[in-house]
Structures are given as C-alpha cells and as structure tokens.
Automatic annotation (TrEMBL), chain A:
<protein>
    <submittedName>
        <fullName>Response regulator receiver and ANTAR domain protein</fullName>
    </submittedName>
</protein>
<dbReference type="InterPro" id="IPR036388">
    <property type="entry name" value="WH-like_DNA-bd_sf"/>
</dbReference>
<dbReference type="InterPro" id="IPR005561">
    <property type="entry name" value="ANTAR"/>
</dbReference>
<dbReference type="GO" id="GO:0000160">
    <property type="term" value="P:phosphorelay signal transduction system"/>
</dbReference>
<dbReference type="InterPro" id="IPR011006">
    <property type="entry name" value="CheY-like_superfamily"/>
</dbReference>
<dbReference type="Pfam" id="PF03861">
    <property type="entry name" value="ANTAR"/>
</dbReference>
<feature type="domain" description="ANTAR">
    <location>
        <begin position="124"/>
        <end position="185"/>
    </location>
</feature>
<dbReference type="GO" id="GO:0003723">
    <property type="term" value="F:RNA binding"/>
</dbReference>
<dbReference type="InterPro" id="IPR001789">
    <property type="entry name" value="Sig_transdc_resp-reg_receiver"/>
</dbReference>
TrEMBL record, chain B:
<keyword id="KW-1003">Cell membrane</keyword>
<keyword id="KW-0472">Membrane</keyword>
<protein>
    <submittedName>
        <fullName>Nitrate/nitrite transport system substrate-binding protein</fullName>
    </submittedName>
</protein>
<keyword id="KW-0813">Transport</keyword>
<dbReference type="Pfam" id="PF13379">
    <property type="entry name" value="NMT1_2"/>
</dbReference>
<dbReference type="InterPro" id="IPR044527">
    <property type="entry name" value="NrtA/CpmA_ABC-bd_dom"/>
</dbReference>
<keyword id="KW-0997">Cell inner membrane</keyword>
<dbReference type="GO" id="GO:0012505">
    <property type="term" value="C:endomembrane system"/>
</dbReference>
Length: 193, 415
C-alpha cells in the first residue's frame, strides 16, 4: 500500500505541481487544502501518513498540536529524522517544505517523499525567480528606451548617439544603464512639475 | 571586572509578529543591541514550530520563545531532543481569553450583571456548558496558540478553577492568532486565549468580548522568554551576556515612560513587524497597571518556581510522559533550562538589584509587596495571585503532582 499524503498549501499552482510529482513517484495524495480550511477535520477524517505544508504557513502550529494528540497523528519531521540525517531537515527547511509524518511510515518512503517535495518546491521557486527576473529586465529595458527618447528630443541626437551617450555616462558614474535611465527620467519629471 | 569578549557580533534572532516582541524591536531601533557591539537581524517567523526548527537547526542564534519551549525541547517533547535554556523573561502578562458575542450573552444570561473581564466568568461559562450538555448541544470550541504555550495552561487553569474539565467539556484546538477573531465571528470558534493585539482587535471590531484577562488568572505570569540552545550558550557565553544586558536595558526603557511604549508601537507598525491596526498595537503596549510589563516587578528574573508551575500544569493535564512526571525529575530539568545564575551575571554587570533566591512561593500576594534584594535593597513587587487563590509551593511539588494524579483518575479518559 502506498503512503497517503495530505498537502496544505495556499498557492494552488505549486500544490498542483507537487501533487502531480508525488503521484508520479507512487504516493497517494488524499487531498490538497488551503490553510484557511479545517485542518483538524481533514487530518481526523483522512488519517494521512504524512502532511506536507509550506514552512511559511502559520498553520504549522495546529499540526504540532495534532501531533501531540496521539500516535496515529503525523508528527514533525525534525523529531524523526534529525538524529540520522540532519541534512534532509535542513534541505527541506531551505526549500520551504515542512513535513509531518506518522511513526509507522517507513524511513526510505519518508525520505523519498521529502525529496520529491523539495525538488518540486525548488523548481517552483526557480520558476518564480525567473518570472521576477523577466519582469525586472522588461521594466529596465523600458526605462532605457524612455531615457533614450528623452535625449533624442532634448539634445536632438540620433538613436545610436543617444545610446552611446547613455552608455558613457553610466560608465563614468559607475552606474548600470537602467539605474541611470531611471535617474534621468525622474529628473525630467521633476522639472516638469 | 573586564567585560567578556564577544564570540560573534552578527546575530539573527527569531520573533513572532506579536505586540510582546517589542523588546527585540526596540532593542534594535533604540540602539541597545548596537550599544553592546551587536549587529542584530530580526527574523519574523510564521509559527512557533518554525522558531523551534530554526533554533534546533542552528539557523537562528536566539529567539523569543514561550516559557515552556526550552523545557519541552530539553525533555525531547518539542522537536528533536535538544538541551535548551533561558536566562531572561522578556515580558509578563498581556494575554486574555476572548469569547464570541453569542457565548458572552449566554454567560450573562446565566449570570446576570456579568461584566467583561469579570472574575465570575469561569463560573458563568460552567453553567452555560452544563445547560448545553443538558439540551444535547455540541461542545464549545476554544483555541490557543501552541501545545507548549502559556496560553494553553492559563486557559486550562481558568477553566479548571470553575470545575470545567477542558478535555471532556470542551474541544480545544491550536490556531494561528491572526485567524482567530474572524473564526470567532464566523461561529467556528467560541473562544480563545491569545496575546495582543488579537484581543484588542476583536473587541474594537465587536467580534468578541474579553471573558477574563491573563493577569487575573495568574498575576505576573511569565509570558515570553529569550531562548537559546545549550550548545549555542556554551559556544557564545560572552555574546549571550551582551544580549541579556541589551534586552534588560530595553525592558527598563520600555517601562520607563509611556512615550517609549508609543515609540515602540510605531517601530513595530512602520517597520512591518506586525500586520495589525496601529490603534490596536498602541493599545496593546499601553503602560497601565493591569497591562503587559517588561521590567517592573523584576520582570527579567527567570524564577525557577514559575517554570515549575507551568511544568506542573503539563503533568496535571497528562501532557508529560509518565516517566517525566515525578517532582525530582522535573526539578532537575528546570534547574538545567531556567537559568537565574546567567541572568544575575548580566544584572550585576548593569548594577541592577535582583532577588536573592531562584524560587519563591507563587500566589501569596493580592497586592503590591516588597522583596529583599541580594544587596540588602528593597525590590518593589506586584501582586502574584492565582484566580482560585491557590498557593504554589515549589518545595511541595510532589504533593501537588500526587493531588493532580488523583483528580485525573477520578475524572477523565486520557486525551
């Protein structure tokens, strides 16, 4: 029989990806719930072997309480794993995964479940970072374009010359182009006011 | 005496987004950490479980903790078995039990004239519970914040003072404080015991009514402590002392002037330490006789008798394994993890008088009293009574535990 896992996560795209990854690894995901939902009812009715929860969720403290109520409730991973493999707990914490596990769950199974969760969370984090980076670089490019246009209008420069002017000024002032562009735009806005 | 050198200067301290994290925030912003040569980063943690994990994994150097957390971790009950200790009480008082408006109305119906924060509230609740049982209604549901919390044992003590058995007569849960008031209003919760600003907020928004404030359950109860692992302390004794000195001075500053309390509230709000309405944070940190204290009545002093009282409550409700439940064992564990000797080093360095003893009788004083300090001076103390008028004698812990054992055999199935 495969291990039965409950996922508690406020971000649905992430929990969907985690759910799929766990299924592919042979785990039985019994339910995925948001943290506003009734954790007590979910754990008492579904009797999961493990609960995976976002380490940033304040609802962890409710799971701590459930873990104190009896052997059939999952207990915090740090109680069960740290003695022999502190790095697993540390890696999980770094990835933002927190796990609660029943004592009867076989250690290799628990380890593989946590590995899947770590990989899934890390992938999600990487995607989010990528997205933030893309957004940032688009904003930066827009700023440089606006500053260029400003220079073309004010100083009657060609596009290429405006670009070269910006580049040289940025090098002289040890700023990157987008910072300098922002500064020029802000200064122009100030003057207009 | 030469000050002990600092083993390290850059520290990360954990805290929860609560009004009583004010000493940590004020120590940073008023420069008390910097005054000791410390560069502190405050890490706002989402849960007590996270504080425990990150302390046990060594990610945090020290943290704001509930007074039972060092003991629970040292006994292997909270996370990995990790010897932990605390040498400083950060604050006393500041909790309250808030109940839903319908429940408060039902309590008033049973007990006409019942006021908010009324000593008769537990009796009124007992009558409501009896009536609900007689008419076949569901158990009332109350929440606290963490298994090893002062809130849990204050709530249970208050319930027990009116003969309510929390395990039989109620359903008790743990819930993140920011969710509590909304759950109360939605009817999913009937009451909770929590710190500020979550009682002030519920009251202002008419989501609930204060049934009893924590200081009436146990006046001057230790509420948060500064906790570290014993391994961290052993590796950084000088840094630990510098932290203690900085926080003791911050506590004195906070209790010195109402304006300092307001300034601390502003730092907490503007710095994004606490996501709550400014008026609730300011109200929570007001300097008043029945409010939270950070320095008065020797707040910093980590009385072993007070950790022992909490430990006795754990034993009372079956939250300690049988093997840990005898008096000698508990006293030994508390000696290891509640450390007035380390506090004394810091207060001596600051020239502050502190008590001679490490333990005292708890619950003897209805009003202000005086205690002789070690240097022969006089220490001004506040009341320390319990709601049921009991006196806790740490020297007779074994008798109390035996009494609790007999009560529990009479009353209830374990849960």
């Amino acid at each position: 029989m495969s291990a039965r896992v409950l996922i508690v996560d406020a971000r649905s795209e992430r929990s969907q990806a985690l759910e799929q990854a766990l299924r592919e690894a042979g785990f039985d995901v019994v339910m995925t719930i948001g943290e506003q939902e009734d954790l007590y009812a979910a754990v008492e009715q579904l009797e999961p072997d493990a609960v995976l929860i976002d380490a940033a969720s304040p609802s962890r403290d409710s799971l701590e309480h459930l873990g104190q109520l009896g052997k059939r409730y999952p207990r915090p991973m740090i109680m069960l794993t740290s003695q022999d493999s502190p790095e697993l707990t540390r890696d999980a914490a770094r990835a933002g995964v927190s796990a609660y596990v029943v004592e009867s769950l076989m250690p290799p199974l628990m380890r593989s479940m946590i590995d899947v969760a770590i990989a899934s969370f890390e992938q999600h984090n990487a995607l989010r970072e990528e997205l933030t980076r893309t957004r940032r670089s688009m904003t930066e490019r827009k700023a440089v374009d606006r500053a260029k246009t400003l220079l073309m209008e004010r100083r009657r420069l060609s596009e290429n010359n405006a670009y070269q002017y910006l580049r040289k000024l940025a090098m002289d002032r040890r700023m990157n182009m987008s910072e300098l562009a922002e500064e020029l735009i802000n200064a122009a806005d100030e003057r207009r006011r | 005496m030469m000050p002990t050198p600092l083993e390290r200067r850059q520290l990360t301290l954990g805290m929860l987004p609560l009004a009583d994290a004010a000493p940590l925030v004020a120590a940073l912003h008023a420069g008390f950490f910097a005054g000791e040569g410390l560069e502190v980063t405050l890490s706002i943690e989402p849960s007590w479980a996270n504080i425990r994990d990150r302390i046990q994994l060594g990610v945090l150097d020290a943290a704001q903790m509930l007074p039972l957390m060092p003991l629970a971790a040292s006994l292997g009950l909270d996370g990995q078995l990790t010897p932990m200790l605390s040498a400083l009480t950060l604050n006393r008082n500041g909790n309250a039990v808030t109940v839903s408006r319908p429940l408060f109305a039902a309590m008033q119906h049973q007990h006409p004239g019942l006021q908010p924060d009324d000593p008769a509230s537990a009796g009124a609740l007992a009558e409501v519970i009896a009536e609900r049982r007689a008419s076949g209604q569901a158990l009332l549901r109350f929440a606290t914040v963490y298994p090893f919390s002062s809130h849990r044992y204050q709530l249970r003590y208050w319930l027990g003072s009116a003969g309510i058995d929390p395990d039989r007569d109620l359903e008790l849960r743990v819930m993140p404080p920011p969710q509590m008031a909304a759950q109360l209003e939605a009817g999913w919760l009937d009451g909770y015991c929590v710190g500020e600003p979550w009682n002030a907020m519920a009251r202002r928004q008419h989501q609930g009514e204060v049934a009893i404030s924590g200081h009436r359950i146990w006046e001057g109860a230790p509420e948060k402590v500064l906790g570290v692992t014993r391994a961290w302390h052993d590796a950084h004794p000088g840094t630990h002392q510098a932290l203690l000195r900085a926080l003791i001075r911050t506590g004195a500053w906070l209790d010195d002037d109402t304006e300092h309390r307001r300034q601390a509230a502003r730092w907490m709000i503007d710095g994004g330490y606490l996501d709550a309405a400014p008026e609730d944070v300011e109200r929570s940190l007001e300097l008043r006789d029945d409010g939270i204290i950070f320095s008065r009545s020797v707040t910093p002093w980590p009385w072993r008798s007070q950790t022992l009282w909490y430990a006795a409550q754990m034993a009372r409700w079956g939250h300690l394994p049988e093997s840990e439940s005898d008096a000698a064992h508990l006293i030994g564990a508390v000696m290891q993890c509640t450390r007035p000797d380390l506090c004394r080093q810091a207060t001596d360095a600051l020239g502050l008088p502190m008590p001679e003893g490490d333990s005292k009788l708890e619950g003897c004083h209805e009003g202000p009293w005086q205690l002789e300090g070690r240097d022969g001076g006089t220490l001004e103390m506040s009341a320390d009574r319990f709601i049921d008028g009991a006196i806790f004698d740490p020297g007779r812990l074994d008798e109390l535990l035996e009494h609790y054992r007999q009560l529990s055999m009479l009353n209830r199935p374990a849960r």
